[in-house]
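Intended use. Records like the one below are meant for learning the mapping from a protein sequence to its folded structure. Do not use them to infer anything beyond what is encoded.
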Amino acid sequence: MRNPQLNANGELTHLLTLEGLPSDVIRNILDTADPFVSIAEREVKKVPLLRGKAVFNLFFENSTRTRTTFEIAAKRLSADVINLNVGASSTSKGETLLDTVDNLVAMDADIFVVRHAQSGAPHLIAQHLNTHGRSHVHVINAGDGRHAHPTQGLLDLYTIRHYKREFRDLKVAIVGDVLHSRVARSLIHGLTTLGTPEVRVIGPMTLLPAKVEAMGVRVFHDMREGLAGCDAVVMLRLQSERMKGALLPSAGEFFKHYGLTQKKLTLAKPDVIVMHPGPMNRGVEIDSAVADGERSVILPQVTFGIAVRMAVMSIVAGN
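Structure written out for the chain above:
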């Protein structure tokens, strides 16, 4: 069965997940982002690759950083950007998700950037478009439930490649609330697909998915042991809003065992990079001295995120 994200020629038409995406497609996205990084950092703000195209930011779940970076990326590609206030839209009046999509397609939408609390919502939209003869409209998943956040995974991959050049000799640690993190899932799929020899997840048993080893990772419950010799450390936000029941004694207890401090960071390699998808809870998962320190690349991640999202939109639109 053909990957639903690819057309008959193996070209990317939707970006729904990094799981099952061929390594050459992922590398092509990262390579395409390279010139956009320099565009993002220069005075020149726009290129005409999406001139005349309409990008609809369809966010059913709140997000400032992701929505803003998609909006900036689309505008730098010269697209027309429409941000929908979904909470006040027809879906709150009983209209189905797919009826909403059909109406927006009738308004000449070219790309949907979809963020939804339910896992699989972007897949459902893409399938609906493909089966109703609207394959010219593209879907980009901006985060669905606990399932996937592929553009965040891609910008994390881009960041690692930017500082470490290649994946084949790296040890990468992902620390914290892996259970509720769609970012962690996307990054794990991307790292393993690109041949990273050792991907580690570090956290308490209550915040790690059951049988997470099946994803090709090494599991550590002791942070000091897990950080030893790592080239990159990715800290995750504690997602209290998605937790059911008491999974942790307290935020202070979590920081004591799994918060990243300067002392713990010395166990990693001297040239380690520290990453965080944001927003950060300082003093809960990361100490301010680390977040603002010389090994932190958290702010460059945001810049790279604009370039990666420019690359994804230009590729799915056929450029």
